[in-house]
Amino acid sequence: MSSEWAQKRFWKLAEVTQEPKGFSVKLDGRALKTPAKAALIVPSRVMAESIAAEWNAQTDKIDPGTMPVTRSANAAIDKVATQHSEVADLLAEYGGSDLLCYRATSPQELIERQAENWDPLLDWSANVLAAPLESVSGVMHMAQNETSLANLRNRVHALDNFQLAAFHDLVSLSGSLVLGFAALLDFRPIDELWQLSRIDETWQEEQWGVDEEAQMMASQKYHAFIHAYKFAKMLY
Fold it and tell me: From the centroid of its chain, how far is CA 117?
């Protein structure tokens, strides 16, 4: 994979072609393949056009850091498609230890901030996802209702390969299965959902100031979270 990515630009034009099962991108008429040599066929023209734009924007050498849509499509085809059930099971496990369910024991202001911002999300989960979840003070694990967890698990398994690739990042970066679904279903603006995942971190920054290294890592995670959301929206 690394040797392929290290190649210099060898094509003049990347363009989109409709295929029987979706859309491909061709470099001077030669169809793109994934690092695992599978055909890079994506579900929507919008996604294919975004991939073509990334390839057309390359200069002397191929820089994968500037090609997030291509990389996400590769992951959907090479990784998720080959182990869909395993990835879905991994993400479904977040339902049993969702970030939104574990609350601070002090100070009171943080307790109230979490309740004010996270309780509406749990209400939404109960009403829209048919998955009521209970919250608890502290970090000791609390077993959730099995029917709720089963409903969440079924929803995760129902996602297709491309949706699941995006969902993986939405959930793992936020630490919350509920926030991942809230992003997919546009319950709240995506920037707001990201901030809701960082209530604890924001509180710490307010008390002790901003750590430069932590802020840099948070910025990287934020951009990855936003990309995952945009990638999912390219499918519709």
Answer: 21
Note the pLDDT of residue 6: 54
Which tokens is 201 given? 């971190």
Cross-strand pairs, 17 = 24
The rounded average pLDDT for each run of 10 residues, N- to C-terminus, in the chain (236 residues) is 57 92 94 95 97 92 91 97 97 96 96 98 98 94 95 98 98 98 98 97 90 91 98 92
Contact by Cβ (8 Å): 176, 122: no
